[in-house]
Amino acid sequence: LFSMVNDLPPGSVDVDKLTPFLNDVKISIKGPQDVLLGEQVKLEIFVEPTQVKSLWVFGEQVEAQDLVTLSDGNAVLSVLVKSSTSKVTVSLAGMVNATWAPGSVRVNPDILKTVYKTDAELKILAGGTAKIISDQKLMRENALKDALVKTIKKAASELLIGSERELLDVPLDEYILTKVIGAIDYEISATGEYAGLYYVLVSSKIKKYDFENYIKEALKNAPVGFALVLTEGDKLGYIEPAIIDGLLSSGIKLVSKDFSRKILEAQVKSNLPPTVLAKVTALSAARYLIYVIVNSAATYLPDYKVYSVRTLITTQIIDTITGNILDTLRFEEVNTGATEQAALSKTTSGQKFKEYVDAVASSLRFENAQPIAVYKYTFVLERVIYGSILLDYLNANYDKVRVVEKTDTKLIVEIENVPMADMEKFLSTVDALKIKKISDFNYQVTK
Fold this sequence. Notes:
Layout: H1 2-5, E1 26-30, E2 34-36, E3 40-48, E4 54-60, E5 62-63, E6 67-69, E7 74-81, E8 87-92, E9 96-100, E10 104-106, E11 112-117, E12 121-131, H2 136-159, H3 174-180, E13 184-194, E14 197-207, H4 208-220, E15 226-232, H5 239-249, E16 253-254, H6 257-270, H7 274-281, E17 288-301, E18 306-319, E19 325-337, H8 340-349, H9 351-362, E20 374-381, H10 384-397, E21 401-406, E22 410-416, H11 420-427, E23 434-439, E24 442-446
Helix pairs in contact: 3-4
């Protein structure tokens, strides 16, 4: 009735004339008496006679719908408690009413829960806290940031990996935080002080498409591309540091060791497969997950009193946006040494291992950054003057030529982004010298 006449001037409908028809109508509403601030509670509504089809909902300090529809005189109403003075009144024509109010409203500033979830959207309630300081604006911002960080991690667990497991231990990069906030429609539903802290309760609606797209665009448009290295099976601790050093030398920016450690700890707890874990690492601003699996077998050779160590490395390059494995690179080598460590040291310091790490670096395709591969070339000189002549040719053709070693009989240089095939093509044009290949990256120089 009211919806049909709501365009009439106020007072045009004399609702008092409805009183004789409502004498037999009874409304009751029941709900929990002990609730949490920010909790979504369900209220049961009962109406007699059952011919009543709907009731108006009037809420104070709650989040609820305006109208509830009844079925056989019953309905369930979901409301969000936003204050210690929250209450809900359901009404028939403003003449017959029933009211619910909680007996007590407790505060839980650490609350983090999914209120509802659909295929396209979810709603999250999160509490955030901050130390009480004189700067009220900063205090509120700190508490809000704490709540939003929890919200984003909760949304990531729900939307990116399809799990209710909370990723609170996974680090969230400040850059990702500032970008992804745009995908969150949030409001502060309550504030106050509790246990010596200032707190806020934040209610957020997040659309799945927007959340995923904001992370995707943030990673693609990052001013610097980052990768994250996670290693399994490196029992002696030689492989991962060597890979990291090689990647850094190639110009790859890596997520901090602290972030990597926390993500690895989260992996141990959750046991996520690498392709799913890669999506989680996007929160640390990593564009790629470099997932390294090391297998090494050592055999002691008593006749020679040395250890023979066979090292197998499999590295997966995983896109953190899609979770797809973009490339899989394998390495295998056997070396000997007085100890297992000495044998592994030979492996990680060798040219073959360096080329392997360069190949890993080259597999990373950052939208706004280009990795640098550094190649080392050794030239055995028949005469000392040939080294100077060759170096002049190299400096004239390439921008960055670093001399690693120069003696009367040897010249060793490092050059960025010049693979062996390109170098050999260039060497064939040097007509002042005769350059013959001895082995990969090793050449003899004569007249």
